[in-house]
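Researcher: Quick test of sequence recovery. Tokens follow.
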């Protein structure tokens, strides 16, 4: 199973952040093949494998209805949702779209906070009711990571694009010290990185810019150090996010208990808008559960 799509957003993914243009027109786009992501090896020299020549496909992907915060997040969700009913996978997909990585229609920050906190508690309901052991633990840790990404949201005042900071992505099977060459280029040579991205947007593959940059790497070892320093800072930022959740004590023992406790907690916090109750009903509807 390839983790389910977000149905209402056009996402642009690059090596260090997720950008969403909520008003972008939907266009046909290529399929995302994660196994074709970068296979660059950066040591004393830079080697490019044959599969590495598909880097451009993983460097920037523009398409509707997909959320890939990182390959690792996607793989974790695939793993924990394996064998689950389709309704559970659909509910998780919908939660990410409706509660975590919301589109531009939710402009009020307090409303977005309530939705995110509800999403975290909805994740706990799924873990408690549909999973057990290590899978439940991994699922909650992964959803917490997506929540941390959601808290980094920023909006470009000129374009209206919504950006989220994400951990630097690694292809499947890549070592922990993997270096994403396009991200190094972005940091140390923004002009060349812009040319690289523009070439891809224009229908090219950006490979000539990437190879040219890679040839300069052995003479500039400090570039890797700067890259590692920045990725370390990003990881530390996301790992130390603290989300205060007003729904922490929601009762997950049954659907009706969960619905009632969330409603009561909403009243206690004076957040009783109908949209939140609709969000809860949509959550149960995706699970195929009726609540009254």
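Model:
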């Amino acid at each position: 199973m390839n983790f389910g799509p977000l149905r209402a957003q056009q996402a642009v993914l690059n090596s260090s952040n997720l950008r969403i243009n909520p008003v972008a027109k939907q266009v046909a786009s290529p399929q995302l093949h994660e196994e074709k992501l970068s296979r660059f090896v950066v040591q004393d020299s830079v080697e490019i494998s044959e599969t590495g020549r598909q880097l451009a496909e993983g460097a920037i992907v523009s398409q509707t209805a997909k959320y890939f915060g990182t390959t690792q997040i996607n793989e974790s969700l695939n793993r924990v949702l394996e064998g689950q009913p389709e309704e559970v996978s659909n509910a998780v997909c919908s939660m990410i779209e409706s509660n975590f990585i919301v589109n531009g229609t939710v402009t009020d920050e307090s409303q977005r906070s309530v939705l995110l906190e509800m999403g975290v508690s909805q994740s706990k309901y799924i873990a408690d009711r549909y999973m057990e052991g290590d899978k439940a633990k991994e699922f909650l840790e992964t959803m917490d990571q997506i929540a941390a990404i959601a808290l980094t949201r920023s909006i470009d005042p000129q374009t209206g694009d919504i950006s989220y900071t994400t951990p630097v992505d690694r292809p499947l099977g890549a070592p922990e010290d993997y270096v994403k060459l396009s991200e190094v280029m972005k940091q140390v040579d923004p002009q060349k990185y812009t040319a690289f991205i523009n070439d891809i947007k224009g229908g090219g593959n950006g490979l000539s810019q990437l190879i040219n940059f890679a040839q300069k790497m052995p003479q500039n070892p400090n570039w890797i150090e700067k890259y590692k320093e920045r990725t370390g800072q990003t990881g530390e930022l996301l790992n130390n996010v603290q989300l205060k959740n007003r729904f922490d004590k929601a009762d997950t023992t049954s659907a009706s208990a969960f619905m009632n406790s969330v409603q009561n907690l909403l009243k206690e916090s004076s957040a009783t808008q109908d949209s939140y109750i609709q969000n809860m009903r949509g959550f149960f509807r995706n699970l195929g559960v009726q609540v009254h």
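The chain is about 50% helix and 10% strand.
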